[in-house]
Amino acid sequence: MAPGTALALPRLERALQAIQARPEDNHDLTRLAESIGSSTYHSHRLFKSAFGQTPRRLVEAIRLERAANELVLHDRPIVEIALAVGFNSHETFSRAFKRRFAVTPRVFRARGQLTAHEPFGDRKHVSGEISFELSRVRLQVLRPVAMLAIEEIGPYEEVPERLYEELVDLASEHGIEPGRLVGMGLDPPGRDARFHAGLTIAPSPGERHRLDRALDRQRRFFISKLPTGLYAMASHVGHFRSLYQAIVSINSAVAAMDDVELIGLPVIEIYHSRLVKRDELFNQTDVYVPVKGAG
Predict the structure, then answer these.
(1) What sign has the CA pseudo-torsion 62, 65, 67, 70?
(2) Do 79 and 176 sit in the same domain of this protein?
(3) How many CB atoms lie within 10 A of CB 34?
């Protein structure tokens, strides 16, 4: 660890949270240094020591991860997605995307598969300070992405993390590449609340046939789709315990909009990490709350 990294770690983590929540903003080294409270030279060294990449490469990786998410989950034109995540041209975005994912954005969208990539790798240093960042609330239409799921009934905060491990294991057992982990709250919070733990999948016909046969033998797991429709959504970066504040913020933003009304359920959480760990201080979660046109 470079000298001074431990002392600066809480500020470095907050800067990274801001980048993940709002990758479209200007995150050049000068602004990053201002947020950390150090010189540009020292900030560059601190950032690379803490997260293993230079700020510029990390910002690009986060923007590309967000773009991959948008391509599969939302029906926006590719050029709009490129601009929305912070690239200044479609051509620059397409070249960078192909370098990272080895296919063009159009092919990636057609495949329909999301995998969990950690753009900063495994962080070796964590401050332990609890904080969170939230993106701007925006309206999005979810695509009906296939999902392997299991239902749990009970308080949302008591949903076992092992359910997600079982979903990943089941998909891998049948040769299906695991996608994004999903949490779907179908009822208001309470002792009898229904919750679907899910894993997005894009199996080939042969893989889907083998999986269907396996599911016929045991009814615990099932295949469904993300409920398509219009949602108010925001990206939350931080501890799971602050997700409730994210939902409150989204609901407040919808209340201030003239052209949409809140439906409220189901609340969908799409996790960017490979495993759901409730004690992790640095989760990234996209939160979707369904809405409808006013009037």
Answers:
(1) negative
(2) no
(3) 12
CB 199 within 8 A of CB 181: yes
- The continuous run of DSSP H or E covering 285 comes out as strand 283-293
User: Using omega within 30 degrees of 0 as the cis cutoff, is the peptide bond preceding 3 cis?
Assistant: no
Query: Per-residue b/e over 213-222, b at no fewer than 16 CB within 10 Å?
Result: eebeeeeebe
Regarding whether 260 and 137 lie in a shared domain, the answer is yes
Same domain, 210 and 190: yes
Instruction: At 7, list the tokens.
Output: 């002392």
Per residue of the chain (295 residues), give pLDDT as tens.
555 566 677 888 888 888 989 999 999 999 989 988 889 998 898 888 888 888 899 899 999 999 999 999 998 999 999 999 999 999 999 999 999 999 999 999 998 888 765 555 545 445 556 678 899 999 999 999 999 999 999 998 899 989 999 999 999 998 898 889 999 999 998 999 999 999 999 998 988 888 988 888 877 899 999 999 999 999 998 877 888 888 999 999 999 998 999 999 999 999 987 776 666 667 889 999 999 987 6
Judge if pTM exceeds 0.90: no
Q: E strands, 154-213, where?
A: 181-185, 194-200
54 and 72, same domain (yes or no): yes
Burial class (CB in 10 A: 0-12, 13-18, 19+), 37: exposed
The number of domains in the chain is 3
Domain boundary among 224, 242, 271: 224
Range of the domain at 286: 132-145+226-295
176 & 291 share domain = no
